[in-house]
Write a structure and sequence with these properties.
The chain has helices at residues 2-5, 19-59, 88-100, 111-115, 119-125, 137-141, 153-156, 172-180, 192-195, 203-209, 243-269, and strands at 63-65, 76-80, 105-109, 128-130, 145-148, 184-190, 200-201, 215-216, 227-230. The protein is an alpha/beta fold. The protein has a 7-stranded mixed beta sheet with strand order 1-9-6-2-5-3-4, sandwiched between helices. It has a two-stranded antiparallel ribbon with strand order 7-8. The longest helix has 41 residues, at 19-59. The N and C termini lie far apart (91 Å).
Length: 277
């Protein structure tokens, strides 16, 4: 028995694991996981794009008028009303203009947009840029189009009984337009207020999810009739030399743009025989 227990012909198992081999396995696994994440992300973006196309063409039966009012070249600021609890109007408008224009549109978007899975990466690929005080001035200076929603989050927070009453426009876009010498093109979007009515909000969920607000609204948009109307451009005023002059010119341009968008909204609402199917 003692000979069996002390038999030197039995090789002990080496307990040491080769760290180089482990690192190689982890590297391969990391590459595969990144590839899987990329593929899932691309699949999600494709699904989101197809959903948007279906919403635009079939569900919302969207009509677009006035595309010819967007300059074919040179800088311009597209100024639209913002409405509906989830901000779906921004994605619908971008989708429509992406189809109808032969030039890209840059849209400054709030940080929360880029944090959203799938939607954030899709928005970035379609021209969304981080929101900053310049509101896309470098793109205007390069002769591109920039689209803004000067009501900001306040437009999305309107209760349903105040639908289509524009909140005061933030004048930042007008300051940028005056600086760049870019015309302002008023745009109105009708239908988002009925598709995603804001019936209330849940502040606790907003804090938990770190979002500006969490609305109470239908989980899926309601089948409202959508209209997008693009008005005639408002020329940018000559750029004054003084700071006070530029500030006054921007305030006038901001007021003119808000009045033009509100006029379009009031006019286009009356074109629908019914807000729903």
């Amino acid at each position: 028995m003692s000979e069996i227990l002390t038999d030197s012909t039995v090789d002990p198992v080496d307990p040491i694991v080769d760290p180089v081999a482990v690192a190689d396995v982890l590297d391969v696994a990391g590459v595969e996981l990144r590839n899987l994440g990329r593929l899932l992300g691309e699949a999600g973006e494709t699904a989101w794009e197809r959903l948007l196309a279906w919403l635009v063409d079939e569900y919302f039966r969207l009509e677009v008028t006035g595309l010819e009012n967007i300059p074919a070249e040179g800088p311009a600021v597209l100024v639209a009303n913002h409405s509906g609890a989830w901000g779906l109007d921004a994605f619908v408008l971008q989708s429509v203009l992406d189809r109808g224009l032969d030039r890209p549109l840059r849209v400054p978007a709030a940080p929360v947009v880029f944090r959203l899975p799938v939607v954030g990466s899709y928005a970035r690929k379609k021209g969304a840029i981080p929101l900053d005080p310049t509101l896309g001035w470098e793109h205007l200076n390069a002769g591109e189009l920039v689209g803004v929603f000067p009501e900001g989050m306040a437009g999305l927070e309107k209760p349903f009984d105040e639908r289509y009453r524009l909140r005061p426009f933030s004048p930042g876009f007008a300051v940028t337009a005056v600086r760049a010498g870019a015309p302002v093109v008023p745009v109105c979007v009708i239908g988002a207020e009925e598709a995603c009515p804001r019936l209330g909000d849940v502040p606790a969920l907003a804090r938990l999810l770190d979002v500006p607000f969490f609305p109470i609204t239908p989980l899926f948009p309601l089948p409202s009739k959508w209209l997008i109307t693009i008005g005639e451009p408002i020329p940018a005023p000559p750029r004054p030399d003084s700071l006070a002059g530029r500030s006054a010119a921007a305030r006038r341009l901001c007021a003119d743009a808000q009045a033009a968008v509100q006029e379009l909204v009031d006019r286009e609402r009356s074109r629908r025989e019914t807000p729903f199917w």
